[in-house]
Write a structure and sequence with these properties.
Oligomer: heterodimer
CATH topology of chain A: Cytochrome C Oxidase, Chain A
Number of domains of chain B: 3
Number of strands of chain A: 0
Largest sheet of chain A: none
CATH superfamily of the largest domain in chain B: Cupredoxins -  blue copper proteins
Order of helices and strands of chain A: HHHHHHHHHHHHHHHHHH
Mean pLDDT of chain B: 88
CATH class of chain A: Mainly Alpha
CATH architecture of the largest domain in chain B: Sandwich
Order of helices and strands of chain B: HHHEEEHEEEEEEEHHHHH
Distance between the termini of chain A: 47 Å
Helix content of chain A: 55-70%
Radius of gyration of chain A: 23 Å
Low-confidence stretches of chain B: 15-24
Number of helices of chain B: 9
Shape of chain B: elongated
Shape of chain A: globular
Mean pLDDT of chain A: 93
Chain lengths: 535, 379
């Protein structure tokens, strides 16, 4: 014990990171933990992406060529789980770790030790999840939505490991979000009011409340599964008096807010980047905050639009249709605000801005197909087809994932002190942009023409578009190795970044040195720059 | 009347707009219009939504593109300083609300119609089974009730690219669901194992088949023809190989088909009801065994242990007959042994069980079709 205390004492004098691997294992520094989260999520992005490439390789042409249907289902399931829980969510937590304290003038996250725990749970959770693929009977094969009774009565033995992994991820997310909330509510620089916070901080505050509300629901539903599988209960078994539809209600009560958990921080990122490169304050800051809050509220009362075909009564069907259509309003407000921010600005188009503009356009396309899906009678035709696959990939990949890439390019000079290679960054953007549209746009067509999702084989009329889609997938997938190269190159050196980095950047994180010192804002900052912090 | 008129107007408008596009093969890229009044309405709704989205997209993206072209730093522009405008913010909140309300009206009308399952002329039960559909034409007289299983017949040779793929690759079944046109039909959708989803795009019918639930759908088909769809809820490894094929025929053709099927059903009813001799059971049993069992348990009954157990002188085939019947009827979860209760009729099941218990030197007791029939009824 005394040794530990002495070490702390020692650290306090030097204000620098410890040496070697133990720096990363024991770190309580928000910047180190942010870095860990971001590298971890990138590793998961490549893993989940490689599963997607197995799927697209099999679907390159009709017939079964590469994998058997059983393994195909494991790939679709693991792709979804890894991307949602391993890539997108931890990436945003990583961004929150790096940015929230620097944006609000706090010295660190409020609960640094818990911060360390919440990260270090993840490698164990995902090692366990990924290892199910090597177990007898294979990995989870029931889709990332793991509907009962397929998952409870016919799942492989590894389902238990999947449940345990989900529990661990949930614990990690809940701890992470408690930390974000406590930090934002308690550690803001004196004089910094809530309505002066950058929108990224606002969106993460709201996201964190969503996480705390729904991760326990996910934990509940997997626990009920566990009981059904091992302890003879029948929550979801109709033969035992249970209800398979209950599973879907509980799952989507988690699942729909989860969708917004993956997009709200993206809104925050884009709301930081567009004003910087338009050299103009964010349009409608207050309405952005209200719109984000409205979306968060609505996310709790629309879950059954994922279940229009389960046979709800007409009244339920109508209610969920109307409530879902309402989401278009606050989402529209956000898009209009971004466009109005660009309007009459003085724009330049560095890589972060390119990703942010692509985000607005492609996310809007995903939002519009979402509006189509909200229409109950039409949804009967769209439901569980590739139209849905195209829809949610448009909001998740050029939505969430593009915003994460935009954020990395935008803040990387602040993190590393070096500018990234702009030419390569633009090349990465254009390859990704073309790849993603070649990949997902044709899926709208095959979906409308009748191709169901989660099938390893399809009838001949869909052959051409699937081939195009697969070509796009490989283009997009391999372009991400370029991203890895650019980031490593930037970490290792490059043109030195100024403190402000970008001509139009405003906010507390741009007032500190580049690279950001290991400890920042150990004394509260001067708020003279804050009036434009949210601009 | 008003509502019907409005819907027709919507359909006409959307058809006009879509046909004005010079796409050579638009139909391969778009939702099918289908052959029922409802499916046409749904198509109309879809096209209206599509064009609303196109208009919004053009406005938003157009503004962005103009802005990106005009408001560039490289053109030497100075950024404006405005950062809010209450009037415009209220406007772009109110206008979408109005658009949404207008869109919700036809959607509500169509949905209400789709849910009105009264006044139907005939009932067909649709039961999802891994990985096939069972169709039962419900009839108060059980001897006249027709029931059959519809499975995909695309051979492995085509799936594994060893033979050229046929036109209806993955969409051909052994027994099509036959229905009359111009008849209000109610479908009762349920499942015998996991959740499936029964989808016929041309009728705009899709409903999940859920164990423990019976859901209703209805349709009136205008045009004779063969309509193909698929299972749309992940239901295990062969989810992608579970097509739905419906053949809609003229009413008199349907009546003739029905009589033929009922005669067949009555024959089976009779066969099951009579007392079978052991020789009859053995002859029928051998035929069924070779067809349904021999690929795993082998012609000589010795199986391929450990995956496929031997039936000779050991195990259930010479054990208590209740256990033997149970595994044939219900299968063994987690193994390749599937449930045959829906695939074989009572006579076939009784015959094959008897055959297994009395062949290859096995000397156990036999079972009558009638006993199996009673067990199936009780299930």
């Amino acid at each position: 014990m005394s040794a530990v205390i002495e070490e702390h004492h020692h650290d306090d004098h030097h204000h620098g990171p410890a040496k070697g691997i133990m720096r990363w294992v024991f770190t309580t520094n928000h910047k180190d933990i942010g870095t860990l989260y971001l590298w971890f999520s990138f590793a998961m992005f490549l893993l989940g992406g490689s599963f997607a490439l197995v799927i697209r390789a099999e679907l390159f042409q009709p017939g079964l060529q590469i994998v058997e249907p059983e393994f195909f289902n494991q790939m679709t399931t693991m792709h979804g789980l890894i991307m949602v829980f391993g890539a997108v969510m931890p990436a945003f937590v990583g961004l929150a770790n790096w940015l929230v304290p620097m944006m609000i003038g706090a010295p660190d996250m409020a609960l640094p030790r818990m911060n360390n725990y919440s990260f270090w749970i993840l490698p164990f959770a995902f090692t366990m999840l990924a290892s199910t693929l090597l177990m007898e009977g294979g990995g989870p094969n029931f889709g990332w939505t793991f509907y009962a009774p397929l998952s409870t009565e016919q799942g492989p033995p590894s389902t238990t490991f999947f449940i345990f992994a989900v529990h661990l991820m949930g614990i990690s997310s809940i701890m992470g979000s408690i930390n974000v909330i406590v930090t934002i509510l308690n550690l803001r620089a004196p004089g910094l009011t809530l309505m002066q916070m950058p929108l990224f901080v606002w969106t993460w505050l709201i996201t964190a409340f969503l996480l705390i509300a729904v991760m326990p629901v996910l934990a509940g539903v997997v626990t009920m599964m566990l009981m059904d599988i091992h302890f003879g209960t029948a929550f979801f078994n109709a033969g035992g008096g249970g209800d398979p539809v209950l599973f879907q209600h509980v799952f989507w009560f988690f699942g729909h807010p989860e969708v917004y958990i993956m997009i709200l921080p993206a809104f925050g990122v884009v709301s930081a980047i567009i004003p910087t490169f338009a050299r103009k304050r964010l349009f409608g800051y207050a309405s952005m905050v209200y719109a984000t809050s409205s979306i968060a509220f609505l996310s709790f009362i629309v879950w059954a639009h994922h279940m229009f075909t389960v046979g709800m009564p007409l009244a339920g069907e109508l209610y969920f249709m109307y409530a879902t259509m309402l989401i278009a309003i606050p989402t529209g407000v956000k898009v209009f605000n971004w466009v109005a921010t660009m309007w009459q600005g003085a724009m330049t188009f560095e890589t972060p801005m390119l990703f942010a503009i692509a985000f607005v356009i492609l996310f809007t396309i995903g939002g519009l197909s979402g509006l189509m899906l909200a229409i109950g009678p039409a949804d009967f035709q769209y439901h569980d087809t590739y139209f849905v696959v195209a829809h949610f990939h448009y909001v998740l990949v050029p939505g969430s994932v593009f915003s994460i890439m935009a954020a990395v390019y935008y803040w990387l000079p602040k993190w590393t002190g070096n500018m990234y290679d702009e030419a390569l960054g633009k090349l990465h953007f254009w390859l990704s942009f073309v790849g993603i549209n070649v990949l997902f746009f044709p899926q709208h067509f095959v979906g409308l023409a009748g191709m169901p999702r989660r099938v390893p084989d399809y009838n001949l009329q869909f052959a051409d578009y699937n081939m195009v889609s697969s070509v796009g997938a490989f283009l997009f997938g391999f372009s991400q190795l370029l991203f890895l190269f650019i980031v490593i190159k930037c970490v290792r050196g490059g043109v030195k970044a100024t403190d402000q980095v970008w001509e139009g950047a405003h906010g507390l994180e741009w007032t500190i040195a580049s690279p950001a010192p290991y400890h920042t804002f150990t004394t509260p900052p001067d708020l003279k720059d804050i009036s434009e912090a949210h601009g | 009347m008003d509502k019907a008129k409005r819907c027709k107007w919507l359909v006409a408008l959307s058809l006009l707009m879509s046909s004005s596009l010079a796409f050579a093969d638009w139909s391969a890229l778009n939702m099918r219009q289908g052959v029922t009044e409802i499916s046409q309405e749904v198509y109309g709704l879809h096209m209206i939504m599509f064009w609303v989205c196109v208009v919004i997209g053009v406005l938003v993206f157009g503004t962005m593109i103009i802005s990106m072209l005009m408001h560039r730093k490289s053109l030497g522009v100075k950024p404006a300083t405005f950062h809010d405008n209450t009037t415009i913010e209220i406007a772009w909140t109110i206008v979408p609300i109005i658009i949404l309300v207008v869109l919700a009206i036809p959607a509500t009308t169509t949905l209400t119609k789709m849910y009105d399952t009264g006044d139907t002329e005939m009932d067909i039960e649709v039961r999802g089974l891994q990985w096939k559909w069972q169709y039962t034409y419900l009839n108060d007289d059980p001897s006249k009730e027709i029931s059959f299983v519809s499975s995909m017949i695309t051979p492995d040779e085509e799936i594994y690219n060893r033979a050229a793929k046929r036109e209806n690759y993955l969409l051909d079944v052994d027994n099509e669901l036959v229905i009359p046109i111009d008849t209000r039909i109610r479908f009762l959708i349920t499942s015998g194992d996991v959740i499936h989803s029964w989808w016929v795009p041309d009728f705009a019918l899709k409903k999940d088949a859920i164990p423990g639930f019976v859901h209703e759908l209805w349709t009136i088909v205008d045009t004779p023809g063969t309509y193909r769809g698929k299972c749309t809820e992940l239901c295990g490894p062969y989810h992608g190989f579970m097509p739905v094929v419906v053949r809609a025929v003229e009413k008199d053709e349907y009546a003739a088909w029905l009589l033929e099927q009922q005669a067949e059903a009555e024959k089976v009813f009779e066969i099951v009801g009579k007392q079978w001799s052991e020789e009859e059971l053995m002859v029928e049993g051998e035929e069924v065994y070779l067809r349904a069992c021999a690929s795993c348990h082998q012609v000589n009954g010795r199986g391929l242990p450990p995956a496929f157990p031997s039936l000779v002188g050991q195990g259930l085939a010479v054990g208590p007959i209740e256990d033997h019947i149970d595994i044939v009827l219900n299968g063994k979860p987690g193994s390749a042994m599937q449930s045959f209760s829906k695939q074989l009729n009572a006579a076939e099941i009784a015959a094959v069980i008897t055959y297994e218990r009395k062949s290859w030197g096995n000397q156990a007791e036999s079972v009558q079709p009638k006993e199996i029939f009673e067990m199936l009824e009780a299930q």
